[in-house]
TrEMBL record:
Keyword terms, alphabetized: Hydrolase
Transmembrane segments: none
Biological processes annotated in GO: lipid biosynthetic process
Identification of the protein by name: Thioesterase
Domain Thioesterase TesA-like intervals: 23-243
Pfam family, one: Thioesterase
Length: 252
C-alpha cells in the first residue's frame, strides 16, 4: 500500500474505513492542494486523494512532463496500489483529460472505476487549435486572469509568478497538444461545466457521451471556467450522492 509520503499522491484527511476512494486531478498549473477542501468535506465517508504533478509546490525542482499521455503512464503506476477499494475519478480542465487517460489505462490493467467526473473540459474527441502555450508572458497572465482560477495575490506577486509560470505553460502545452486515440471508458461519466466557460461549449461537453460504454450525465452551472469555486457545496454533494449510489450497487 502506498504511503502518505508518496510524492505523487496526497491524502490530506485519511479515511481508512471508507468503502470507496475519490482520486482528484488538478487543472493546468494547479496542484493537489486545490482539492484540500474536497477532502475535508468528504472525509471520513470517502477516502480522498489528490495527484501532485511534478514541477509545482514541493515538487517544483523536478522535471515537468509536457504530454498528457506520458503523465498518465506515470500516474497509473502510482495509483495502482490505491485501487484496493472502488475508485471514482474527478478531474477539472486538463485534469479531466488526464483522468480519462488514466482511467483507460487502469481499466486495461483490470481495475474497474465507479465513475469519472469530467469538469470544465471538452470531450477528448473535440479538438481546438489553441496555442496559449506559445504566447508571451503577458498573454499567458491575461489568460490566467480571464479564467479566474488564480488568486489575485498570486497574480500580483512577481516572485510567485516566476515560480508558477513554467508549470502553467507546460500544462497548457500538454493540454493543447493532446491528441487522444479513439476509446471509451467502461464506467459512467458525469460532465460538469459552466454556462459561461470559454473553454467548453455545450456541444463539446455533450460529446463526452461518445467516450463511455456506460451512461453519461451532464450538469450545467452558472459561471465560467472555475464555476466550481462558487458552487463548491453543490459539486461536493453531487460527488457524494454519485459515489453513495454507485458504491451501493457495486457492493451487491
Amino acid at each position: 500500500m502506498a504511503t502518505n509520503s508518496d510524492k505523487w499522491i496526497r491524502r490530506y484527511h485519511p479515511a481508512p474505513d471508507a468503502p470507496t476512494r475519490l482520486v482528484c486531478f488538478p487543472h493546468a498549473g494547479g496542484s493537489a492542494s486545490f482539492y484540500h477542501p474536497v477532502s475535508r468535506a468528504l472525509s471520513p465517508e470517502i477516502d480522498v486523494v489528490a495527484v501532485q504533478y511534478p514541477g509545482r509546490q514541493d515538487r517544483r525542482t523536478e522535471p515537468l512532463v509536457s504530454s498528457i499521455e506520458e503523465l498518465a503512464n506515470l500516474i497509473v503506476m502510482e495509483l495502482e496500489p490505491w485501487a484496493d477499494r472502488p475508485l471514482t475519478f474527478f478531474g477539472h480542465s486538463m485534469g479531466a483529460s488526464l483522468a480519462y487517460e488514466v482511467a483507460l489505462r487502469l481499466e486495461a490493467r483490470g481495475t474497474t472505476l465507479l465513475g469519472l467526473f469530467a469538469s470544465g473540459r471538452r470531450a477528448p474527441s473535440r479538438w481546438r487549435d489553441e496555442r496559449v502555450h506559445l504566447a508571451g508572458e503577458e498573454e499567458l497572465l491575461a489568460e490566467l486572469r480571464n479564467l479566474s482560477g488564480t488568486g489575485p495575490a498570486v497574480l500580483e506577486d512577481e516572485e510567485i509568478l516566476r515560480m508558477i509560470l513554467p508549470a502553467v505553460r507546460n500544462d497548457y502545452r500538454a493540454a493543447e497538444t493532446y491528441r487522444p486515440e479513439p476509446g471509451r471508458v467502461g464506467c459512467p461519466v458525469v460532465v460538469m461545466f459552466g454556462n459561461e466557460d470559454p473553454k467548453v461549449t455545450e456541444e463539446e461537453a455533450l460529446s463526452w457521451a461518445e467516450h463511455t460504454t456506460k451512461e453519461a450525465t451532464f450538469r450545467l452551472f452558472d459561471g465560467g471556467h472555475f464555476y466550481l469555486n462558487s458552487h463548491a457545496q453543490q459539486v461536493i454533494q453531487e460527488i457524494r450522492q454519485f459515489v453513495a449510489e454507485c458504491g451501493a450497487v457495486a457492493a451487491k
